[in-house]
Specification:
heterodimer; A: 331 residues; B: alpha/beta; Rossmann fold; 2 domains; five-stranded antiparallel sheet; 13 helices; 15 strands; globular
Chain lengths: 331, 430
């Protein structure tokens, strides 16, 4: 049995390495804009994984992921700028600080559920990024620079900055998805699912439900923090304007569309979130390119998609597709 | 036989290589990004919507109108200018995203008039303008940090820096308001802090000093500013912020019957925009402001007259300081493109700015500082006083131009005569 699961993990590891290799080759073939968008997809993938873990598995609804990302972004920037440590340590610090913050929040969250928890985390998403305006060491509205540096010279002249971001973001996304998927398939994942299904029944079978909820919050926040640091890398900046309420909502939409409890779905979610502004731009252009239209269409898209998805496919279209295929293969 | 084939292959390869390299040297240089035989693509990021947009949202259209006028009169060496405007809502993060679109998707040749200090700082770093060698002409910000040619070798400023402005206002305060109680309201990013540093260096002490964060300006916050200023009984109040913050400040002060001598920074003192934002016109009467350009209503000025004509035909916007500024940005851009010559490259444009930029015609009264070692545009201001209709006239009747630098240089009164407006507003420089 132990051998069996070890084999599974090894198989998955090989799959992820293969996936990384494919992405590397794809990254070489695309133009710079697409490569940059690739880095953004990787960033969204990590952020969506944190929502899947929290909401899809442990059943806690959080609208405050943008705030957790902000915590991670600022932690990474402060580490890199003040301690001049290598990049990877800045990313580690982002996970650590955001996870600690999440654990703290989890203490409160474990006592709340449903709309109350959503409300609390929503308040966090509104308020937390604005705190940067109150303390000068956080850089106010213009924010702090977050500079991971130029790509190593041995990659050559042709190796652009954005390809470097793409490599880093993709590597981080693959590693974190691999770890997350293992956590979700472990005892913890099953326990969280049990709590989501029926918290009373879970407690009766010996699960310490509030502890496990706090743990879910901690792990999910760590992931969100990491996504926040990757976001900061792609724009070389941490600023309140980067972690808006709109980002939190976009993430929830992405997670719902991708299927809230499906980890592979997060890649689809990432694609959708990057595609929305592109589609909105194209639509605005065809409607006569008015400034107001350009600015507000992406937000409108996100809201409409979320509402439609909740009405017609409560578990997300991704989930429906998966079920459809499962049924087919069962026949 | 085998040996023969091999040798033949080697010869063939050598011949192809030789012919190829010969071709490569005789072929015309590869076309520059954003430039074709009949077009030049330029890009700008600025707030078209959002809290900071009133006023600034007119600049892009004014530039575009001027470019259309030039295009209808033959373009620049036969090339028509296409301007792509992107709305960044004054948010640095959006500026980065939009500039990325301009450079990677629209593939513009250069940026012209990108607006905002924090915005351009972030863009320059994130997008890597310097490493890509992308010319960024006429940054619409007065942050003196951009005057560092080593850090910003492909960028050129146009406005006198906030530091210059503060030094000139400091000199003016000393000459005209010695012994009065002074107040200051400023935006607490590079924009206002630049000015604050210059005031401190000039030895001006403010009795009341109020920083505010960009984006927080509203009637409610203006209420707290006014009560602090009134409590400190400030008699002269200097304001360094954007127009969308000037408006609530003046409106609330008028409501509270608090009427100090206002000195409004050049960035936030456009009368039409102030009026549009609900400031009673009477409040502006007597307010002082450092100004670089003539009044947009001064039809005796050859630049203003020409730009108004172009505006009437191509833009149809109410002609104010922003439209004037946008038109002038267009005029300067066309001169820069002409100076770079018919075979337009990014490097050529930067070299032309360095070599000939200081001779360009511009509506502002002060000299341009461009050179091989300086990327600084205009270097001075005159003090103007606003009338009851929001129009402005030179303080003391005639334009008294002060020039200075962003460092420790003195503030001097200057007799500089600006170049004449090119005939019909169409540059023919080379």
């Amino acid at each position: 049995m132990v051998n069996e699961s070890a084999k599974k993990v090894r198989k998955k590891l090989l799959l992820f390495i293969f996936l990384g290799w494919v992405l590397l080759i794809i990254g070489d073939r695309l133009d710079e804009l697409r490569v940059y968008q690739g880095a953004q997809i990787a960033m969204y993938t990590i952020a969506l994984a944190s929502i899947v873990l929290l909401t899809g598995y442990s059943g806690q609804v959080s609208l405050g992921n943008g705030a957790m990302m902000a915590v991670g972004g600022y932690a990474a920037a402060l580490t890199l700028n003040n301690l001049q440590t290598p990049i990877w340590s800045a990313f580690m610090m982002a996970i650590l600080v955001a996870a600690l913050f999440g654990a703290f929040l989890g203490l409160a969250a474990a006592r709340l559920s449903g709309p109350y928890l959503a409300g609390t985390t929503l308040a966090l998403a509104v308020g937390l990024p604005a705190i940067a305006n109150q303390f000068s060491f956080l850089g106010g509205e213009p924010g702090l620079l977050f500079d991971v540096g130029f790509p190593p010279e041995r990659f050559g002249e042709e190796f652009t900055q954005y390809k470097w971001y793409f490599w880093i973001a993709t590597f981080i996304a693959l590693v974190s998805l691999f770890i997350t998927s293992n956590i979700l398939q472990s005892r913890f994942g099953r326990t969280w699912k049990a709590i989501r299904g029926n918290s009373l029944a879970a407690e009766l079978s010996g699960i310490h439900s509030s502890q496990m909820k706090i743990l879910a919050f901690t792990v999910s926040s760590g992931l969100a923090g990491l996504a926040g640091a990757v976001l900061a890398m792609t724009i070389s900046l941490v600023a309140p304007g980067a972690y808006t309420l709109a980002l939190s909502f976009a993430l929830v939409t992405g997670a719902v569309l991708a299927g809230i409890s499906s980890l592979p779905g997060v890649v689809l979610g990432g694609f959708i979130l990057v595609a929305i502004p592109e589609i909105a731009d194209a639509l605005a252009a065809s409607l006569g390119n008015q400034d107001k239209l350009n600015s507000y269409l992406p937000g409108l898209f996100v809201s409409v998609l979320l509402i439609l998805s909740v009405i017609y496919t409560p578990n997300g279209p991704g989930e429906n597709l998966r079920k459809h295929f499962h049924k087919k293969s069962a026949h | 036989m085998i040996r023969k084939t091999r040798r033949r292959r080697t010869w063939f390869a050598a011949a192809v290589l030789a012919a190829g390299s010969l071709l490569a040297t005789t072929l015309p240089a590869h076309a520059e990004t954003g430039v074709t035989t009949n077009s030049i693509k330029l890009g700008i990021t600025l707030p078209l919507t959002g809290a900071a947009s009133p006023g600034y949202n007119k600049i892009g259209n004014a530039m575009d109108a001027y470019f259309k006028y030039v295009n209808d009169n033959g373009g620049v060496y036969g090339r028509k200018i296409q301007l792509i405007q992107k709305d960044d809502q004054y948010s640095p993060q959006l500026s980065i995203a939009k500039t990325n679109e301009l450079i990677l998707k629209d593939k513009v040749f250069a940026l012209v008039g990108p607006l905002g200090t924090a915005n351009f700082t972030a863009v320059h770093k994130s997008v890597g303008l310097q490493r890509r060698g992308i010319p960024s002409l006429f940054l619409n910000t007065g942050f003196s940090g951009f005057a560092n040619k080593k850090s910003y070798p492909t960028s050129f400023t146009i406005l006198p820096s906030y530091a210059m402005e503060a030094k000139i206002v400091a000199q003016f305060l000393k000459e005209n308001f010695a012994g009065k109680k002074l107040g200051l309201v400023y935006q607490n990013d590079e924009f206002g802090i630049d000015a604050l540093g210059a005031f401190t260096a000039a030895g001006v002490k403010f009795d009341v000093s109020i920083p505010y964060t960009s984006g927080t300006q509203s009637a409610a916050t203006a209420q707290t500013w006014v009560s602090q200023l009134a409590a400190g009984s400030a008699q002269v109040v200097v304001f360094f912020g954007v127009t969308s913050a000037t408006a609530p400040l003046l409106a609330v002060a008028a409501g509270a019957k608090y009427a100090p001598q206002w000195i409004l920074g050049s960035v936030g003192s456009d009368p039409l925009t102030l009026q549009a934002l609900g400031v009673p016109v009477a409040v502006l009467n007597g307010a002082l402001t450092p100004a670089g350009n003539p009044s947009p209503n001064d039809l005796t000025d050859e630049y203003v007259k020409q730009f108004q004509e172009i505006n009437t035909k191509y833009n149809k916007a109410a002609f104010d300081d922003y439209v004037l500024q946008g038109m002038n940005l267009g005029l300067m851009t066309v001169q820069a493109l002409r100076a770079a010559g018919p075979s337009l490259t990014r490097r050529g444009l930067i070299r032309a700015m360095e070599a000939k930029g200081s001779t360009f015609a511009s509506v502002a009264y002060s000299p341009l500082g461009y050179s091989r070692t300086s990327n600084v545009g205009h270097t001075g201001y005159y003090m103007a006083v606003m009338g009851p209709t929001g129009d402005r006239k030179p303080f003391g009747g005639t334009v008294m131009l002060y020039t200075t630098d962003s460092g420790n240089g003195p503030v001097v009164k200057s007799n500089f005569k600006r170049p004449a407006m090119p005939a019909k507003g169409l540059p023919n420089n080379s």
